[in-house]
Amino acid sequence: MKNKKLVALICLTLVFVLVSQSSAEVKKIKSLGQYTFVRVRGQIPTPEVMKMLVDRYSADIKIGFEQAGLGEVYQPFIDQLKTAQFEDSTWNIGETVQWMLFRSQGKVKVSGPLEWAGKKPVETFTVKVKVGYKTYTFMIPKPCGNIAYVGMGEEIPEAICNLKVTPAKANINDPITVDMSGSQHAKSLKVEVLDKQGNKVASKDLSPDSPRWQTKLDKPGEYVFKGTAINMADKPSTNPCEARVYINNPPVAVVVPSCTDCKNYYGKPITFDASGSSDPDGQVTKVAFELRDANGQVVDSYVDTEKPFTWEKALYSEGTYTVAATAYDNDGAVSAATGDSSKSFTVTRKKLFGLIEVGPMLAHGGDDEYDLPDYVGYVFIRPGLFTWLNPDKVSLTFTAGVGVPFKGSPWKTTIMAELLANLHLGKAYIGVGPGFTTKEVDMRKAGVDAVGQLGFTIFDNYLKMGQIFFEFRAPIGRTFDSHKMGLGFRFNF
Questions:
Q1: Residue 472 to residues 24, 227, 367, 385, 433, Cα–Cα distance (Å)
Q2: 87 and 133 belong to one structural domain
Q3: What pLDDT, in 10s, does the model give residues 294-327?
Q4: Helix (H, G, I), strand (E, B) or coil at 290
Q5: Whether 299 and 316 share a structural domain
Q6: CA–CA separation, 169 vs 1, rounded Å?
């Protein structure tokens, strides 16, 4: 648009000589036309024309704003005027503006306050500029397009509280995050935590710069988080602003061993039963077992994820143990340690066994004095006792029984007995000790034997054992012709 078609940006004139801008006396003006900011001939300006002229003369407008003491408003004025609404208004007789821009002798000047004292109201545009919570009102008379400052109003908005609490369901002492960053127009923030009975259990003062808080709750139940936002006028928010959090009840663990005085349970499975574990507001999903010895050292552990939550364990060391169970519910809560969640028990090993030995045996018969065959077959059966002196290392056996010959006279049934000390080397063992044998034939004597065994353990579940052995019996104080040897099977029970 050509300049000649534009109306002057500021052409308001004063009917009297303007005095210094610092004067506080209200000056009355009655007519227009003497002092103008810029002279442009044409029609009365439209909002579009005024926006263009303001942009063109922005440097001069800046000088005027600084002279008037509103330098901080200049840039918002320039920026907002591009999209501002120009409201039709009037400058009525007797109404005052704070100041007005004009040019005198080529220099930008500001004068005010000014009162309109003309014969009739002047048609104007009114433009509002917002800076923070302050609204600045400017007036532009339509006949000339000058810029006048009417005044400032401050409107503090209501604070709006926004509260988010996560998670909505948590376990005891789990971190709970409070976020009030979504609150608006707040100078300060506050959150309170109330239990189900309405008692305050915690509170925290926050700010827009630090709107988050992390806390923990150590008791189960339902809690209410109430937030408040406070505006610049110290007025608290009135909109609903709260959240609810449920703290999960932890499960209760119960463990029962199948025995507490586990006599002779060495190597025998013991069952640890945690099926009595429960959860007051959910269900138990797994149980973790832990076994410790008398020194508190962990011996073994096991996790069962299926009901009825049991663990079967065989122990291979005597002593006192403690089994502890920890239950987990469907929300991940963990049971606390109680007298029901851990139990002590004692494991002992079977050391004394009954036994029976059976097998074939050869008794030597041939010699120079008696016309007897070289060897005669016997079968022996000997019950007795077996005891550990040092488990898996040294044992003692005592047996007594009979040997029955395969042939008849002169061979006789013999009575046999022996006491052996056995050294165990893994599954093998060596046994030595004294024995006693009655006479096999009438022409021989009963007497003491030196007995030796070489054996091998074929099975051992710590309650029952099976062994095979070779035995040699050498007479003491009698002719060596009376020796015997045989194979045997021993069953310890």
A1: 138, 95, 19, 20, 11
A2: yes
A3: 999 999 999 999 999 999 999 998 999 999 999 9
A4: strand
A5: yes
A6: 67
Domain count, the chain: 4
Q: Considering the domain boundaries, does residue 159 fall inside one?
A: no
On whether both 73 and 115 belong to a single domain, the answer is yes
The reply to whether 56 and 70 lie within a common domain is yes
What pLDDT digit, counting tens, does each position of 13-44 carry? 332 333 333 346 899 988 755 555 555 455 55
Tokens of 216: 């923990």
Neighbours of 107 (CB within 10 A): 9
141 in Cβ contact with 77 (< 8 Å):
no
Q: Is position 244 within any domain? A: yes
Contact 451, 435 (CB under 8 A): yes
Q: How many CA atoms lie within 13 A of 394 on its CB side?
A: 4
What are the tokens at 115?
A: 């009162």
Cβ burial 233-247 (10 Å sphere, 16+ → b, else e): eeeebeeebebebeb
∠ CA 41-46-50, nearest 5°, is 75
pLDDT tens-digit map of 243-267: 999 999 999 999 999 999 999 999 8
- One domain for residues 148 and 185: no
Q: What is the pTM of this model?
A: 0.59
CATH of the domain at 470: 2.40.160.20
201 and 218 inside one domain: yes
Amino acid letter, 378: Y
Q: Containing domain of residue 282, as a range?
A: 256-347
Could you tell me how many helices (H) and strands (E) the chain has, helices first? 3, 33
Domain boundary residue among 154, 176, 207?
Answer: 154
Asked if 174 contacts 254 with a C-beta cutoff of 8 angstroms, the reply is no
Domain end call among 99, 127, 154: 154
**Same domain, residue pair 412 and 331:** no
CA distance 369 to 452: 27
Tokens of 330: 């469907």
Which tens digits make up the pLDDT trace of 381-411? 999 999 999 999 999 999 999 999 998 888 8
**Whether residue 358 is found in the same domain as residue 471:** yes
- Encoded amino acid at 2, one letter: K
Nearest of 191, 177, 116, 189 to residue 146 by alpha carbon: 116
205: its two tokens: 């003062």
